[in-house]
Amino acid sequence: MSEQDKNPQEAEVTEEQTVEAQTEESVTEEQVQSEDVDAIEHIARLEAELAEAQATIQEQKDSVVRAAAEVENIRRRAAQDVEKAHKFALEKFANELLPVIDNMDRAIEFSDKENETLKPVIEGIELTQKSFVDALAKFKVEVVDPQGEKFNAEFHQAMSMQPSEDVEPNTVIAVMQKGYTLHGRLLRPAMVMVSKAP
Predict the structure, then answer these.
(1) How far is CA 75 from CA 65, 68, 71, 87, 94, in A?
(2) Which of 86, 90, 102, 129 is the most exposed place for a label (fewest CB within 10 A)?
């Protein structure tokens, strides 16, 4: 009598246990595989959220850098505007004073320098004119007196042209009215006569 014949119930139990064990193993493997899939999906979700958060952080960093640059540009422009306002605040005032200097220049130019009685008056006008020009120079109002210089359309206004063999063409041969600049910016051009080829 074989072992199976001896105890058929035992053989059935062993087969059932084997089937149950295999079923449990397959269920456990399915659970493990299911848990692995869930874990992988969870990790993928977390990685996507991390990437999104990093992108947001980068955008915010960029916007902060742009905002800081914009603030710096505004600060620099404001400083330049204030500097220009300080530099050129005297422009209107200086323009009002230029005719006074012109009148003093004319008084000196057309005075009778041979008349002894007028010499002290002429000297007084010359000293007043010089101190006036020096006072304006302290505030960067400079005289443009281009006698004998090359004509420069930025600072000179040609009133007439005259043929001349003595000087090169486009040379200032006479200044009718001096010009002035304020911090290098033209207040009034010098009115000049320019030479041309004969």
Answers:
(1) 15, 11, 6, 18, 29
(2) 86
Q: pLDDT per residue over 39-52, tens digit each?
A: 888 888 989 999 99
Residues 118 and 104: their CA atoms lie apart, in Å, by: 15
Angle between helices 119-138 and 91-109 (to 10 degrees): 160
CA distance 10 to 109: 144
The alpha-helical segments, DSSP class H, found in the chain are 3-6, 8-88, 91-109, 119-138
Instruction: Look over the chain and give the mean of its residue pLDDT values, rounded to a whole number.
Output: 84
**161: helix, coil or strand?**
strand
Cα→Cα distances 3→8, 9, 19, 36, 78, Å: 8, 11, 20, 43, 106
Integer CA distances (angstroms), 42 to 29, 35, 48, 54, 109, in order: 19, 10, 10, 18, 98
